[in-house]
Design brief:
about 350 residues, alpha/beta, Rossmann fold, seven-stranded parallel β-sheet, 13 strands
Length: about 350
Amino acid sequence: MEKKKIMLDMTMLKRPHTGLGQFSLYLGNYLLEMNESNSYEYHFLLHTRTKPTIFNKLSYTPCYFNIVRKNIPVQLATHTFKKYDIWHTLSQQSAYFPLNMNCESIYTIHDLNFLKEENQQFIDKKMKMMRKQIEKASIITAISHYAANDVAQNFDLKGKKIEVIHNGIELKTYINPKKPNFIAENQKFIFTIGSLMEKKNFHVLVPMMKYMPDYKLIIAGRREKDYIYTIQNEIKKHQLENNVILAGEINDEDRFWLYQNCEAFVFPSLLEGFGMPIVEALSVGKPVFSSDATSLPEVGGELVDYWHNFEPENMYEVFKNGIEKRKKDALFAEKAIRRANEFTWKIAADKYFDLYQRFLK
């Protein structure tokens, strides 16, 4: 009997360290691991700069495309003419979809952040593309209830169901991680990480440090556009050059050491479809302080302390009271880790695999 063919659009792996890239990488790895009996034939749609060895197993067929070929519309790339039983588009960023309308189509939406970040021309173009994807989809999945509600409010789904499958996290651990050279021995610090973009809102953390002279604030992440200047201006304005460290992109070992050794993790982001860093911090039992925006309360639950405004003194009071509360709770670390264990890639992959099986029966 011919094996069922499943295409997974992994084009966002062109940026493997972003949230969308990590989603593709971990979901792909777990699906391949679950397919040891080779029940299905997986094909992964990849950008040409993605190496097939990025996955732990090679039991799949890489299907490359090249976005430089502007003269060929993405929907007409040659691989779309192949017959697949399921086509899974892993992100709302992709414009690819199968031409074969007999193919079951799953469309995963992470967020609609562009509605708050982009100009009207971009929004109109993006909405048109997403409407096409939704129209073709057999089912839509979202990575949080917040994202699902946002989609339902902004699109006419024509009765189509949205199934929520939360993301997982898998923090790479080290037995004896080496301390990064940008932090001193025995220095107390709070930590945050993410692409340096306006929506991450990191600059509001800087004035809070005036009330925390014994702490350093470490902001790690890739620079995006000009937002770093907003952070630097806040540092200069409040004369906190010695209190804030802009660490830039860091490796996995530094990341784990910082999570493991920080006094707390802070995340004032304004737009998140899920919020992986919150769960990563909880997975090592750390206190977490977050904005109360978008999906973050859904993910953090009662194990996270939330800022309801970004007035520096108020932020500090929330931080101080939260730290004291968590220190008094002898079981906090255990409860935080238990919460994080609700969001694993194994759980997420099992749910997507069940969805595939539902369509292939």
